[in-house]
Amino acid sequence: NMLINTPNTNDSGVELTGSIQQEDPQLIRGRESVYRKHPSRARSLFQDSLGSVTIADVAEENIKLENVPEEGADGGELEDDNQPGLLEILLNGFIAITQLIAQSSYIGTNIIMMAWSITYHSWLTFVLLLWAMFMWMLPNQRKTMLRTSPFLVLYAEFLLLAQYLYGMNFTDEELPQQIQGLNLRQIGFEKYLQLPVKPLLIKTLYTLMFWITLRQHNQERWEARNSSTIADMVAPLQIGVGAATTAMGGESQTKTNQFVQKTGLVVRGFLTKYWIWVVASILFAIGISGQRMTVFRIIYMALALVFILTFQLSWVVWRKIMYSFWLTVIIYSMLILIMMYTYQFDNFPEYWVKLGIPAALQLDIGLEKFDTTELFVRLLTPTFFVVITVIQLYYFHKDFLAISDIKSRGTSSVRPSDRPSEG
């Protein structure tokens, strides 16, 4: 039963109040609001003669929510109409996956920066390589990458404009590639006589990932400002920002998000258990592969043997040294990549000779010049290994230690019979 009382108006203004009575108040009284600790107070509106509206506290009102049956329609049919369809669930799932990719675009941006640098070898792309390596080593990589994304996009656009200019049919007098002995090709200004649109297209595709990261950065900034505005608007009404923003979401979106979250947890749990063994296998493969043995490969093999022997001898020690071990592997791989990358530039073999390292010893170390086709393959191996090792260290290492902790038998997902014994 509902009773609405309208008081008399006077010259000072018009009072708009309402009191609702109900037989069973257990629907709302059974829960306590998380937004106030004191007894809740309802709100009433007061409008004066000038039209201004103010909000005042009145006695608490309990509202019983009941389903209103649809006239001329069956309740079951109405529920069926509200159920999400298969196409809607698939669409919401696609949107959720797209949002997940956008939120994780900083990882793809780092990988694309390294791929760009080894695809087109030059001093300008070497900046991208150093930039990516610096980002990999930061503890808060995502935040830093999002903040630097505007500068990254500007730098990529500069490279695109330079490539567009050097893709035109200009003569060497109009657009030279050497100025007073300076090789502009190694700087990054190279002419492509055959299919000049190919490098421009590839670099444009690389830049798209940078734009996605920049868009994610701008979107998060807009959402932060928007959430602050909503919080200021709903504060007098005692409504949470989450309730105000998620009330518009449908049932199908909730179910889809739950499915995506469960799938993500399953995939993450699988990768946490087995990604470390993928990295260890590739580490061992790098140490034994190749036509000739070099110092670089010998050190890789030594690191692989340290990993295997420590695992066999002491499980506790192996777990304790894992963080330092992976960090050492990452730094060593980055140093190899930098030395191999810079060795391909002009006059660098002579610089090594001036440091007291003859040409024969440079070859034994693993420093040698490659042609354009073979250079990409040679640089791809350390680049790929740096990426997968960084992923292991920063994204799966803590979870792996948690599930492999012998002392946490009750909380660990690894059974005692599956754990190796300490030795």
From TrEMBL:
The chain crosses the membrane at residues 120-138, 150-166, 274-292, 298-318, 325-343, 375-396. Residues 91-401 form the Piezo TM1-24 domain. The keyword Transmembrane helix applies. Signal peptide: none annotated. GO terms for cellular component: membrane. The keyword Transmembrane helix applies. GO terms for molecular function: mechanosensitive monoatomic ion channel activity. InterPro entries: Piezo, Piezo_TM1-24. Keywords: Membrane, Transmembrane, Transmembrane helix. This is Piezo TM1-24 domain-containing protein.
